[in-house]
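re the bet — no i am not wrong, look at it urself. input seq straight from the record:
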Amino acid sequence: MNKVHASFSKIELLAVYFSYVVRYIYPLILVPYYGRVLGSSGYAVVLAGMSLSSTIWLCVDFGFSTIGGRDIVHTEHMSERDSIFRDQFTARLLLCIPGLIIGAIAACRSEMISGVPGVSFFVVVGGLLNAFNLGWYFTSTGRPRTSVMIEMLGLMLSLTLLFSFIRKPADIDRVFPVIFASNLAQTILAYWLVRKEYTGVIASVRAAINLIKRSATIFIYSGTAVLVLVASTYILSLLASPAEVSAFGLSERLVSAGLSIMAPASQILAPKVMYLVTRNEARANLIARRTFAIFLLGAVAGVIITKLLADWLVPLLFGPEFGHAVPILKIMVLVLPLAVCTRVLGMYFLIPRKLEKLLALSGVTAALVNLAAAIPLAGNWGATGMVLARLLAEGSLLLMLVVGTWRAGLIRGIFGIEEGFSWQARFSRWLE
C-alpha cells in the first residue's frame, strides 16, 4: 500500500515541523554571521553565488520533482517506483550538460563571482549537485521525516564547517567549498538509504527525453517564474553596486526564510491532496483551504512585525553596516502574502488537477513582467527597483491564477461552496 495516504496524521505533520526548527534557526544564525565576518561586500558575493547556484538547480531539476512525486503517489509496487527513479536520475544527467554550460558562462559574466578564485567552480557544480536531491522521493513515498532528518544533519554539518573555516573577510573563497562539502554529504547519505529500492540509476535516453517533455509545462510555471525571481540577485549584481546587492539579497533571504515555513506542510499535504483529488475532492479542498488560511494569516502577521521591528532588529542582528537594507526589507516583505496565495493555488488546486498549461502561461507572463520591469527599475533605483519588479511579478502571477481558476470552475471548490455541509459543520471540521 502507498504509505502517503495510509500513514498521514497531524502528529506526523507536527513532528516534521518540529524537525524543521533547525532549518529556521539556520539562516537566523548564518546570515548575521556572514554579514559581520565577511562584511557587506563579501556577503554580496555569497548572495550572488547562491542566487546563480539556485538558478542552475532549478534548470536541471526542470520540474522533475513535482512530476515524480505525482507519479509515485499513485503507485503500489516497488517495481513501478524503480522505473520512475531511473527516469528521474537519467533526465537530470542529460540536463546537466546545458546547466554546466549556462552556469559557466553566467559565472564568468559576473565580476563579483569570478573575482574570487575558485568560487565559480563550486557555485556551478554545487547547483548541479543540488538538482539530484532526493527530498521529492522520500516525501512522495511517505517518509518526509527521513528527508527532514537528512537536511538537519546537513545544516548542522554546514554550520560546523562554516564556523570553523570562515573567520575573516579573506575567507570568502572558502564559503562555497564548505557548502558543497555539506551538500555532497547529504546527497551520499540519501542515496545510500534508498540503495535497495532501485535496480540502477540509468534509464534509456528515450525514457529520459519523454520525462523532460512531460515536465516541460511544470518547468515553464515553477521553473521560469521562480527562476527569474531567484536570479534577481545575480541580475542586480550586473547592474548595481555591492551595497545594493547586499541590501536586496539580505531582504530576499529573510523573506525566503519566511516562505520556507510552507515547505514542511507541502511535503506532507501536497501528496495527500494529489491522492484525494480524484477520490474525495471535498476533503482535498478542505485541506487546501486550511493550509491557505493558516499561512495567509502568518504572512500578514509577518508583514506587520517587520514594519514595526525592522528599524532596530536588522542593525542589532546583522550589524549597523546593514542599516541601509531596512527600507528594502519593508517593501520586500509585501511579497509574503502574495506568494502564499500563488503557491497554494498552484500546489494544492491546479497541479493536483493537472492544469499545468494554466500554470505555464501564468508563469511565463509573470517572468516576462519581472524581466521587463527589473532591468530599467534596477538600473535606475538599484535594490528598490528590483523589489518593485518582484512585487509586480508576484501581483501579475496571482491575478492570472485567480482568473484561471475561475475560468476552470474551481472557485466553488476553493471557497467550499456546495460541498454538502453547512458553514457550522465546515467550521467544526477545522477542529478535527
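see?? Residues 356-407 form the longest helix (52 residues). told u. also Residues 4-8 have pLDDT under 50 and may be disordered. so pay up
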